[in-house]
Design goal:
There is one protein chain. This protein has six helices and five strands. Helix 2 packs parallel to helix 3 and helix 4 runs parallel beside helix 5. Strands 2-1-3-5-4 form a five-stranded parallel sheet, sandwiched between helices. The chain has a single domain, classed as 3-Layer(aba) Sandwich (Ribose 5-phosphate Isomerase B, Chain: A). It is an alpha/beta fold.
Length: 149
């Protein structure tokens, strides 16, 4: 599985920490930016880059996006077909998003989640399988129909 990362200046340090941990754990990590700290950058650029990749490779890729509140990157990512981004502030919340909704992008709020909690959230995001119950699949089909309108 490929993990695509993206963050603006407010999420840059947390992204770098997560990237290091994921590489140490043997994940294939692709950093789509920002690759250096730039306080003038804009989160939509990085969220769009990650969402495009995950939308094209939805069956074999995941994305992790970080900005100050997490909301901006989450909104952008959810504009792309086949992307189900979840803004998570706890490992229980992302568990449900993966298990029930097959979320394939995790949006994190650098200003509201400490590094230790972020690491736990990422771990649960990457290790939790989609349950695949019929009711969950039915709901995802409805989301796909909305995307197609």
């Amino acid at each position: 599985m490929t993990i695509y990362l993206g963050a603006d200046h407010r999420g840059f340090n947390l992204k770098e920490r997560i990237k290091k941990i994921l590489k140490e754990q043997g994940y294939e990590v692709v950093d789509l930016g920002n690759t250096s700290y730039d306080e003038k950058d804009d989160y939509p650029d990085f969220a769009a880059a990650v969402a495009k990749k995950v939308g094209l490779e939805f069956d074999k890729a995941r994305g992790i996006l970080i900005c100050a509140s997490g909301v901006g990157v989450d909104v952008v990512a959810n504009k792309y077909p086949k992307v189900r981004s979840a803004l998570a502030i706890s490992s229980d919340q992302i568990y449900d998003a993966r298990h029930d909704d097959d979320a394939n992008v995790l949006s994190l709020a650098a200003d509201f989640v400490d590094e230790e909690d972020a690491e736990k959230i990422v771990k649960v995001f990457l290790e939790t399988p989609f349950a695949g119950d019929e009711r969950y699949k039915r709901r995802l089909r409805k989301i796909s129909e909305i995307e197609g309108q």
